[in-house]
Structures are given as structure tokens and as C-alpha cells.
Amino acid sequence: MNPETPQGTESPNSLPVPTNDQLLEAILPIRSEAPTLGLPKLLLRLKSLNPGWQLSEKRLRKFLNTNPNLSPQTSNHGHSRCSPRPPSDPLWVPDYVWEKDWEASGFENSTAEPVSSLDDTLLLECRQRSVKVEPVRFPESNKGSGLIAKDKYPKGTQVIKEDAFVWVPYSKNSSRAVMSGQACAFCGRVFSSQRTKSQPYCPHHPAPGSKEAIAAQQLVTTTSTTTTGGQSVTEKPAGPEPCYMRFCTRVCVQRSMEYYGPLVCPQRNPEYMHVIRLADNDEFRGAHMVFKLFARLLIANEKGEPTTNPSFQPSPQPSEDGINKDPSTPVLSTEAEQDQAGSDDPAQGGRSKNKKAKAKKKLTNVIPEWSTPSVEFEKLLTRVESLATVSDRARRERLQGGHHGHFADVRYGQLWRNGWQVVTRALHLDTGYRPTPDPSATTDVFWASYWKRRLSSETIAHYFGFRNFLEFIGKASLNREADHGLYLLHSRFNHSCEPNAMTLKNPGSEDATKSSPSTIYVMTKRDIQKDEEITLAYVNPELTVEARRKKLFEDYLFSCFCIRCRRELKEEEERK
């Protein structure tokens, strides 16, 4: 018979084992105070602060090995240093310094609060169209800008109806429905069980049941000889699988082609599936939204004339002879220069005028000619940059009060790096912009020749580097709706705990097949006077004042001081 445990004590085996999240929360403050603390002393400190834990040295060592940023690290001066692990497959840009973008995105080197500006194009559209609101600036308030009513509206008036600037599936089931053709690939509208001819398939790849798809699925038998002298027979389809994505109308097809091109076709662009898997498995839907924002910029760069005054000017690159070279000048290989120097063509300065000109050798190592971004690229970029923006790394660090920089790096650093890697790879910047010494070395012939206009390497690093990726992640977190849609006009509504309007998805209808998730409606909750600001509730108004203000700070980095919050805070002080 086992002896009984004395009353008032607890057996070590009955103590709770801390989870990884609990360990992380406990180690971060200790590491910020004593970054050089070794494993035994760290274990003693943890046990003294948490006597109710069952924690062994083996468990702690295993946890630190899986989180190298929590290991004791010192610089030459004895201070703690955070050296983030570089991505295994970084963005292809000559001399791209990944660490500079990482440091620039931190709390100390970026804005602590979201920064936004008024979109002049949006203001012009609201004045020209029959829109019931108008963007205005509030110079004497920390709001920055907002939307006011153009006229007097009674309760129940539809103020705006807006389609998403960018929309991504909001759940794993929604993503599966889009990829399997059960929902529109552009707006997310769910289809009924019966397909109609007005629901076209993806235009970038053969559809299921088409002649091309049937021919591609014919099995091709190949026979090969093994090392032992035997023969192995394999059967595989003659071509790629069909694309099952569908669209609810031809309007959605046209918009998808205009916005994203073939970048969102999973068969034409298999790397796009990695973006979807990252969003579904890691719940990192911000990376999916940033991918579509970047895709819109790249597709817009293919349209219109190149701008003569780009917002970003690449600096000239000094050559070996000390002369600054224009990055837009194409560079020829050594063989190409020798071929031009030895040409008999009079236009090339050859000595013989009677000889027949030799056929020019095909230049396979010519760096593509760069061009400035197009006018459409600049217009679209201006509209996106006007939205409230803050680096996601700075946002996470500010939630910790500006301290414990390891917290954001350890918990989200690897996720950010993986997301940036997956997004830039799916954009095919390395194949479309990178010069290849041999055409046969290009694995994807389609993407190697798809981009007709190419940006300079510095422009690519500026707009698609890691710093801009983190800023776009923060932009998506601050401005997206609950359905993971980004709306240019809807994002201008300010918050109030006593809002006079509300957002609806399908007013007057509960049928999901008759409304698209990427369309929202803003309806008035009460009578609104002319020039009165229209506000929405960012969080549930039924929460307590502490819960509302905490949620607002965690998601939007501000604490509400509206009339209702001030009234409830005053009532709480009086009760105390």
C-alpha cells in the first residue's frame, strides 16, 4: 500500500506541465532582463516564479532548441542581440540586404501609430457618382479623415454598396469551395448544385470536360530499364490536370483577368497553391491578401505608358571605371561584346564593306531592359498607400509596450519569413525578371516570357522586399473586413461605440447563392443629419468598456475615447 501524501503538499507528478505558449510568455521577460542567463539558472528562475509547474531541464532544453532566438546570445558589448534567421530562398535582387528591411520594420525604426492619407481619386469618385457619403479631413482631431453624409438620411437608408478591392477566402472550407469550383473564384459566391452555362471556367487553363483536358488525361505509357536489367512500365497523363475554378458571371472572369491575370490560376501558377496552403494551415490569410495586392500591382504595371516621374527613383549603380550607370541600361555578356566588336557589318564599324554581314549571334545572356513603373502602377499604388499603414512587426511589438522585441520575433518571425518567401515565389519575380544564361535553364517557359515590362532590381526590392511585405500585412490587418475583404471606401469609416450605421452582407436575403461575400452594404441605424459623420463599430458594442478598449488596442492600436466610453469610465470611477 502506497504511503499517503501529507496534507498540504502536492506530489511532483501531479503538478501541471506548462505549454509552449506558457513557457514563451514566462521566458521572454527573463531574457530581456538577463540575456546571458544559462540553462540551469534559467530553470531555477522559472521554477521560482512558477512553483506550480512541473518542468525538467530536458524539457526546457528541447524548447530552447526549437526557439533559437530564446537561447543566450551576446554581442561584443555584452548586450542582447536579435539576429533573425535569413530566409532560405530570399527575393532575387542583386545585393539585396535582407537585414536592413528587417531592422527598418521594427518598433524603433518605424511609425508607432497607423498612418493614412486621403485618397484624392476616391474623393473625386464620390463627388462624380451618386454616393451618399464624402471623404473629409479632420485636421483638429486625431482621426485624420472620415466620411460624412451628403444629405439627411432616415433610418434604414443604404449608404454605400461596395465591392472588395481585394478579397480572399475567409476559411478553409471557403478556400476548398473556390478551388473545387463550388464557389466563384473572384467574389466567393456559392453556386447551387446545378451548373449553368453562364458560370464559365478558368480562362487560363483547359476546363474539365474540354477536348484539351480529355486529351491531356490520356495515359502515356513509358518503359525504362532498371539497373538490374529489368524493365519498369509507368503510366502518366499526357498533360496537366484541368483547372476546376469557376466564376459566377463573365463580369467576374473579366475582373479576375484584369486584376490578377494568370497568377491566381492554380494550374498555370502551381506556386499559388502554396499561398493558399499557408493561409489555410497556418491561418495566415494576411499573406494571401498581400499576394493579391502585389499581383494587382504587377498586372497594372503591364498596362499604360511608363511614368516619367516615378515615386521611387533607383540610385545609379557605379561601374568599375567609376562612372555611374543607369539601371535601365541593358548589360551585354562578354561574348556579345566580342561578337559586336568583330562584326563585318558597316553599322558596327567593321573594316570590310564588301563582305556579307554575318548573322548576329542570339544573345542569351542579355539582362532585360528595365523600365520605370507604368502610370497605372503608380495610380494603384497611391490608392493602396493611402490606407492606414503600420508594419506588422512594429504593431506586434507595440502590443508589448515597445519592450520584449524577442516576443514578436520568436512568435511571428518565422511565419513572416515563410509568408514573404511563398508570396514572392508565387509572383515569379525570379523567372520573369531574372536574366538566364541559357533559355533551357528556365524551368517555366510561360512565366519567363510573361512579363513584358520589367522593373529595376532596386524597384523590386523597394516594393516587394520584406519591409514592404510587413507593411502590407499590417495594412491588411488594420483595414480588412471580417470576411477578409479590403474595401477602399469602407475602410474610411471611423469607429464609435455608439455607431449610427452598420455593415451587412446580404440585406433582405438569407440565400447565400444570391449574394457574394466580397460585397458589403452600409445601412443607417438611425436618422442622420446632413454633414454628420457616419461611424461604424469595429468591435461588438455589447462588450464592457474595458473589453471594448482592449480589443480596439489589440486590433487597431488605439484606445477609444468616444462619448459612451467617457461616460462609462466616469460611472466606474464614481462607483469606486
The proportion of residues forming helix, as a percent range, comes to 25-40%
Overall average residue pLDDT: 77
Number of strands: 13
The stretches of 5 or more residues where confidence is low (pLDDT under 50) are 3-9, 74-83, 327-367, 435-443
Q: Major sheet: size, sense and barrel closure?
A: 3 strands, antiparallel
Q: Give me the Rg, rounded.
A: 29 Å
The number of helical elements comes to: 20
Largest sheet, spatial ordering of strands: 3-12-11
Strand content: 5-15%
Catalytic activity: L-lysyl-[histone] + S-adenosyl-L-methionine = N(6)-methyl-L-lysyl-[histone] + S-adenosyl-L-homocysteine + H(+)
GO molecular function, one term: histone H4K20 methyltransferase activity
Keywords: Methyltransferase, S-adenosyl-L-methionine, Transferase
Biased composition (Polar residues): 65-77
Q: Can you describe what's shown?
A:
Among the domains are: 14-81; 85-111 and 299-311 and 362-478, no CATH class; 129-164 and 487-537, Beta Complex (Beta-clip-like), CATH 2.170.270.10; 538-576, no CATH class. Helices cover 36% and strands 9% of the residues. It has helices at residues 20-33, 39-49, 57-66, 98-104, 120-128, 172-179, 211-216, 250-259, 271-281, 285-301, 334-341, 375-385, 392-399, 405-426, 429-432, 445-450, 457-464, 466-479, 545-556, 563-575, and strands at 133-138, 144-149, 158-163, 166-167, 219-225, 231-237, 317-318, 324-325, 485-486, 494-495, 501-504, 519-524, 535-536. The strands form 6 sheets. It has a 3-stranded antiparallel sheet with strand order 3-12-11, with no helix packed on it. Strands 1-2 form a two-stranded antiparallel sheet. Strands 4-9 form a two-stranded antiparallel sheet. It comes from Cronartium quercuum f. sp. fusiforme G11. Residues 1-20, 65-87, 305-363 are annotated as: Disordered.
